[in-house]
Write the structure tokens for this entry.
Amino acid sequence: MKFSASSFSAFTECQNKFNLQYELAVKKAEVSNQAEFDYGKYVHKYAEVFELTGDDNLSKNEAALELTDGIKVSDKFANIEADIACYKKYRSGQTIGLEKMIMYELFEGIDVIGFIDRVSLVDNTVTLIDYKTGKRVDSGIQHSHRLYALWALWRYPFADITLDWQYLSIGKRKKYNVKEEDALSIHRIREYYADILQELDHCRTTGTWKSVSHFEKWRCGYCAVSHACKMQGG
Ligand code: SF4
């Protein structure tokens, strides 16, 4: 079975959501934050084109973008110039991977798949970069940190590895030196996912899937399968 940072996030945030989305394959509805999603997609596209071609004009070609990528230009694009300036300010190193697809076996029969926005190299340091366009800095180590770090630890065993999550819309970044974080060691990451997969087995066996906690009900507002959720009358 294939897992991604998103599917693990779905499971740890709301098992019910994981069941609907990944076990029962309920079709996702358009969510209320579609405009934010489109804007994020645009910024990633901009970074990719800029890295490949040095072309700085993508933001002036909105009509073509709507046609080619189905992105709807909305008022979320108001801060585009500032976000792009931030991307350029943070940009450093030689690009050695772009929209880098990773795939590896976490445990027997359990594969991980993902995409890293950019991989850069400076001296002996490999940096995995993730561009964010939301207004909130994630708290603590996320699934994407763990899963991408594990890939890099196997792929670049002799390099220093840094994770650099860049929150362009709020001008912040959060960096982790992988070899200095106990939670990002190969052993800890595998242990962490072994526990999650054991819990998943339990859900499947018993047919019980927990919903978001009372304090996390706000997540339901962003849930693309809420129409099928019994908690929401689906
Ligand atoms: S609507 Fe809320 S409780 Fe239901 S699946 Fe989505 S996140 Fe979970």
Q: What stands out?
A: Residues 107 and 165 are 26 Å apart (CA to CA).
